[in-house]
């Protein structure tokens, strides 16, 4: 979220307008052609932006437009031991639709259409109504991106992200929640000087995943009576600098492990009303467990610089549950996961004499993901990762990039792959 240079506006109305330009979180667009800060702030507030397709009926005071992004990637992987592979992968198309009535209500939705090994996959990223309830408060209803942290809500679109993928621990099976379903209130307050922003959400919350970890995504039902509360508070002491703190508190319920055809056990959510009677052959009953998550983030975007850091820590208490590969119900110990990264990007537009060189943006990121209490997840995902890349901006929202990624897996057995080097090439278009 970008702070304007003047503080004489209504923060909640600014948040509502910002949703219209949600795909123009102009860290990329601003630096793409060396635009000044005021131009960036105008774009972030929805001014001067011409969407690829839009319409308006002024008599009814309604408007709409289509935005989104698309990308395609190529990955070369070289693992220790000499194994290597190369493949064109992950072609995505993410259209986003926005319908607005005056400055009171904005409905927005994003879909993700992606190719997979099984064919084409269609996923709803979010679908929400934003209602301006007060000059300092917007009420959000529906399925929304989690307010926890910065990356998922603001940076995950590939043309905005400075790298070709998410930081370690911030993607699938990671610490950062992706989305939730429920209600959220968000807005901001002018301070002298500075700006304070807030988001508080109440939703169905996470669940136990098939592997026994946490599934931190939106579900259209609640498997227990305890709603999850989450949120973030951000402080912008000056233009371009934001410091934030996030939290999530919820509860998850144990799941049954049903036997599928071929003798494979799979986890399945159970009815909360029957949880006290669910018992396996060893006398264990399904139980509930508290989940707590907290973190902080800092971001600075000024001139040619884009600097970011983020830290998240989550804890799930011990729980009796079924999970993939288990025979009946088992007791899982406390699960603690930690993920963090630091990232820097610098546009050469201010130092290069050649126009083509001014479109070049070197980037670097280091991150770690640690898991304690679930060996299967730790062996698969715990890592230390270096990313070094170069972005070349063909246009303010069109980028081609190359990234060299060095991964060291920190919880694997000696006979497993310990390190791998990947080269990622990506083309991304935000519209």
Biggest sheet character: 16 strands, antiparallel, barrel
Provide a count of the helices.
Answer: 5
Q: Classify the fold: give the CATH topology.
A: Porin
Provide the spatial order of strands within the biggest beta sheet: 2-3-4-5-6-7-8-11-12-15-16-19-20-21-22-23
Signal peptide: 1-34
Protein name: Phosphate-selective porin O and P
InterPro entries: Porin_dom_sf (IPR023614), Porin_O/P (IPR010870)
Biased composition (Basic and acidic residues): 262-275
Report on this model:
This protein is mostly beta strands. It has one domain: Beta Barrel (Porin), CATH 2.40.160. Strands 2-3-4-5-6-7-8-11-12-15-16-19-20-21-22-23 form a 16-stranded antiparallel β-barrel. A hairpin with a 4-residue loop joins β2 and β3. The protein is globular.
List the helices and strands and how they pair.
Layout: H1 11-20, H2 27-32, H3 37-44, E1 53-57, E2 62-79, E3 84-101, E4 105-116, E5 119-134, E6 137-145, H4 151-155, E7 179-190, E8 195-203, E9 207-208, E10 214-215, E11 228-238, E12 241-253, E13 256-259, E14 265-268, E15 288-302, E16 305-316, E17 319-321, E18 330-332, E19 335-346, E20 360-372, H5 375-381, E21 383-395, E22 398-409, E23 419-430
């Amino acid at each position: 979220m970008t702070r304007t240079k003047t503080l004489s506006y209504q923060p909640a109305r600014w948040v509502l307008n910002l949703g219209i330009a949600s795909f123009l979180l102009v860290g990329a667009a601003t630096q793409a052609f060396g635009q000044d800060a005021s131009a960036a702030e105008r774009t972030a507030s929805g001014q001067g932006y011409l969407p690829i397709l839009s319409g308006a009926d002024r008599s009814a005071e309604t408007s709409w437009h289509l935005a989104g992004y698309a990308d395609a990637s190529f990955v070369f992987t070289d693992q220790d031991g000499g194994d290597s592979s190369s493949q064109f992968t992950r072609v995505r198309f993410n259209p986003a639709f926005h319908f607005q009535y005056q400055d009171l209500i904005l409905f927005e939705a994003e879909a993700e259409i992606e190719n997979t090994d099984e064919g084409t996959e269609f996923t709803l990223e979010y679908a929400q109504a934003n209602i301006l309830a007060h000059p300092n408060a917007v009420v959000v209803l529906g399925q929304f991106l989690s307010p926890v942290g910065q990356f998922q809500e603001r940076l995950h679109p590939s043309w905005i992200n400075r790298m070709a993928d998410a930081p370690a621990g911030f993607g699938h099976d990671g610490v950062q929640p992706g989305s939730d379903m429920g209600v959220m209130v968000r807005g901001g307050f002018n301070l002298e000087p500075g700006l304070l922003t807030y988001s508080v959400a109440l939703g169905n919350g996470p669940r136990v995943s098939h592997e026994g970890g946490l599934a931190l995504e939106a579900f259209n039902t609640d498997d227990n009576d305890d709603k999850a509360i989450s949120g973030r508070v951000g402080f912008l002491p000056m233009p371009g600098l934001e410091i934030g703190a996030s939290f999530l508190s919820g509860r998850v319920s144990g799941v049954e492990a049903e036997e599928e055809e071929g003798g494979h056990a799979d986890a399945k959510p159970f009815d909360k009303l029957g949880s006290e009677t669910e018992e396996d052959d060893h006398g264990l009953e399904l139980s509930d467990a508290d989940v707590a998550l907290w973190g902080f983030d800092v971001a600075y975007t000024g001139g040619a610089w884009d600097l970011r850091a983020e830290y998240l820590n989550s804890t799930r208490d011990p729980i009796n549950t079924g999970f993939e590969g288990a025979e009946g119900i088992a007791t899982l110990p406390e699960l603690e996961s930690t993920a963090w990264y630091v990232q820097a990007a610098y546009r050469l537009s201010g130092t290069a004499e050649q126009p083509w060189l001014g479109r070049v943006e070197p980037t670097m990121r280091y991150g770690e993901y640690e898991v304690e209490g679930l060996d299967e997840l730790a062996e698969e995902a715990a890592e230390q990762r270096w990313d070094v890349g170069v972005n070349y901006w063909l246009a303010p929202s069109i980028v081609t990039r190359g990234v060299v990624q060095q991964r060291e897996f920190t919880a694997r057995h000696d006979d497993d792959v310990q390190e791998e080097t990947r080269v990622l090439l990506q083309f991304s278009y935000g519209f």
